[in-house]
Amino acid sequence: MSEKARKLFDALDLNADGTLTRAEVISALRTKGPTLAARGDLPFWGLGDADDSSALFDAADQNGDSVLTFEEFAAVVDRRFGW
């Protein structure tokens, strides 16, 4: 798992509980996405609308419990973002 994935996960974990919900991912990417991209913590092409964020969440939610662990998240973003 990459350090970039950890940094991004922590930035999206708005309530700092160690997991991500769909609403958290959508909200965090909407509010923090441009800043994260400008710092190099998220590819600019990774910014999208709520549908794109929701699709990223669905791709990562491997066990279908509607909550992302760091491991689920990192497996998808490392592959998708080429980290």
UniProtKB/TrEMBL annotation:
<dbReference type="InterPro" id="IPR011992">
    <property type="entry name" value="EF-hand-dom_pair"/>
</dbReference>
<feature type="domain" description="EF-hand">
    <location>
        <begin position="1"/>
        <end position="35"/>
    </location>
</feature>
<protein>
    <submittedName>
        <fullName>Calcium-binding protein</fullName>
    </submittedName>
</protein>
<dbReference type="InterPro" id="IPR002048">
    <property type="entry name" value="EF_hand_dom"/>
</dbReference>
<feature type="domain" description="EF-hand">
    <location>
        <begin position="48"/>
        <end position="83"/>
    </location>
</feature>
<dbReference type="Pfam" id="PF13499">
    <property type="entry name" value="EF-hand_7"/>
</dbReference>
<dbReference type="InterPro" id="IPR018247">
    <property type="entry name" value="EF_Hand_1_Ca_BS"/>
</dbReference>
<dbReference type="GO" id="GO:0005509">
    <property type="term" value="F:calcium ion binding"/>
</dbReference>
